[in-house]
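Supplementary Text 2. Reproducibility record for the structural model of the 316-residue chain.

All settings were left at their defaults, and a single model was retained for analysis rather than an ensemble. We include the record here because the model underlies the residue-level annotations in Supplementary Table 4.
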Amino acid sequence: MRALITGVTGFAGSHLADLLNTIEGMTVFGLKRRRSDTSNLQSPCITIDCEITDALSVENAIREANPDLIFHLAGQSYVPLSWTAPSFTFEANLMGSINLFEAVRKIKPDIPIQVAGSSEEYGLVAENECLITEEQPLRPLSPYGVSKAAMDLLAQQYVRSYGMKIIITRAFNHTGPRRGEVFATSSFAKQVAMIKLGQAPPVIFVGNLEARRDFTDVRDMVEAYYQAIRFCKPGTPYNICSGTAHPLKAVLEILIGIAHIHPTIEQSPDRMRPSDVPLLLGSYRKFHEATDWTPTIPFEQTMKDLFNYWMERLKK
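Retained model, structure tokens:
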């Protein structure tokens, strides 16, 4: 089997490469931008330089890899950036997906493709609408959320119009080692580690700590992606989440407790969003029924591993 991961050098992509390399007989290919940082890659992967927003580049990469499975993880994944660069966000997330779907449709339309949607598609959710199921209306509150909702609908259209095997996953927040430092949990962990190592004064800068998020360990998440492409029905969305919401304030407290430090907390205006989703709490019942998947790594362990990841990086 030949598996292709778009965005292989990213957070989830690199962990998925690790997982696929444990499967006997699997050869892992990955698409990356020419100047991408490859430090996240920890296991064998045949990389192909490709610009996901260039249709010919994508088509050539699909022909070169000749995959049996495709995991589409490439895109602009940082929600705050979508406010300042909405056009880039749509180009990467929507046009990149169109280019991939069109290339596969032309070359090998029966390849199963898993596409990484997002809980940000749900957007404005009331407390009485949780746990969020796949039937929840999409009311995205950011350009990122809108771009992912559009990708989701596009995938459904390609399944209905062309009979393609596109599996839609809506991942809720996931974190763990290698998470980019611009994301809240990793930003907290890096700041805590710097204080612990004496590399920064005991002050942690934060955004909205009242937001509550449903976190899954990235290693559980990529296992879910693999199970999705094996067992899920094309053209229908599946939530992947833990079913437990953590206030960001509590996340920070866990990390501070792990490090045994006593910092001051300061809210930073540049870490606040124009509009924020107060609560994202999902149900993975539908996905569990299709795959028997359930998250296995406790959130506290995820935070320990993320903290230790930053401790090791900052010591170098």
